Structures are given as structure tokens and as C-alpha cells.
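Researcher: Next sequence.
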Amino acid sequence: MSTHEVPTADQLSGGRGLFGPQPEPSATAVDDSQPLISLSHIHKIYQMGDVEIHALHGISLEIHRGEFVSIMGASGSGKSTTMNILGCLDRPTRGHYFLEDQDVSKLSKDELADIRNRKIGFVFQGFNLLSRTSALENVELPMLYLGVKTHERLARAKEALELVGLGERLHNMPNQLSGGQQQRVAIARALVNQPTIILADEPTGNLDSRTSVEVMGVFQYLNREHGITIALVTHEPDIAQFSKRIVIFKDGRIKKDELVFNQRSAADELERLPVPLEDDEEDEE
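Model: Next structure:
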């Protein structure tokens, strides 16, 4: 596969053991019954000396299984604080956070760490890959914390990399991969523990325009074909249009929450974009 191509549906069909057979379209539809995630009247107050900083003012938000939600807002709007709470990296000052009907808002640090390892997959702007470790070994890491046996770690890591179109790059080091490929490794790493939800924080922030579309194509595939729930923080309105729903924060409150009726299709856009020349082709000219 060219380093400039987003995996096609056929190329991305390697996740049979990790996620089971590809579901029928009805199985990937949003579940309108019990929410997967429910934030109820969440307040977050930070103490800065004698001053209280109100980052969140009683927000309530539901995310259902199979949704693909973008969270937007200016710096200081509360979107990053909300993402930290969703990811069990921080606890609300007041209010309740239910994840699969479990109130995780009052759990201990160790209990929150267990939730993060088992139920949440993280994808960050900076990839956060170990530089001296292969793609396969990077993807294996989350399973080490859960005590997964070696043969199963290897199988699941390979399958996750195949799922994001990197089946031929298992033993490459990060410096041998493009930015888009490194982000795909990070997505594969987020998938291996079969999380309840993937949280992506500015996942295209370090990527050029075409590579950003390629990465969003991977997210769209995982959401559409495997029903994986995704919440993505972005400051880019055009990136948010790849999702199915946009939640906009302002001054610690939800200003707008709306469906995307003209969702961008990464696969369609990539078909229309010219394929960049490989480095060796450029040198020949």
C-alpha cells in the first residue's frame, strides 16, 4: 500500500477476531436507548491559590453506542476538561459521570486507572509512540498492563495494525513511518483492548491536509463498519464535519449540540484528490 493511501474497506477487514465479523448496517446504527456515556450536571472547579476557576458549569451530555462525536470550542471553553473527565484522567468537582451505567465520578485513582485500561482507547495529537520500539511492540503495550499472554498480545496487535492498513509495517520503527502511519499505529494501540469508546484529542493537529483526511477515513471506517464509538476533540471545523455530531463548548457550557447533515466522506474525497508523488519519483524529475 502506498504511504499516501487510506485503507479501503477490503484492506481494513482484518479485524475479525478483534471485533468479530463485520456487522450488518443496522448493527452500527446509533443506539437510542440507554446512553453509553452520560454526564449529569458536571461542574469542575480548579483552585488557583485563593481564586476558584470554574472550568465547567453544570454540563450534561449523553453519547450513545455507535456515535461519532466531535467536541469543539476555543481555548478555555471547557472542551479539554470535559475530555479529561470522559477519559477518567480527572474527576468532576460535582455531578455524575456514568460509563456503561457505572458511576465513575467518585472512583479512586486505582479504579479510574483500571477503567482507562479496560474501557477507553486514547489517540493523541503527538502520537506518543516509543521511538525505539516497533509498530507491533507499541501496539502491544496496553495489553501488558492487563496481563494478556504473549501469544494473544501478538495476535491482537497484528490484527489491530492490519485493521488500520499497516499489516506490512509491523516491524517498522516510528522514524520509518510517515506522520499518518504513526497516527494509525496510535489508533491500533487504542483498539487492542477492545475499548468501549475511543477518545481522540486533536488527532490531525500534526498532519498535513491530505494525511488528515486519510486518518479521518480510518476513524470513519472503524465507526461505520465496526460500530466503534468515537469522541474527537478538534479546533478545526472542517475536521469536525467528518463526524456525525458536533458539540460546541463556550465558557464552560455547551453552546450548541447538533447533528451533521452533510457529513464529509474521507473515502470520496481521497478519490478526488491527486496522489502525491513518492520521494523517488520527485527526484527523477
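Model: The first strand starts at residue 37 and ends at 48. Strands lie at 37-48, 51-63, 68-73, 94-99, 102-103, 120-124, 197-201, 229-233, 245-250, 253-259.
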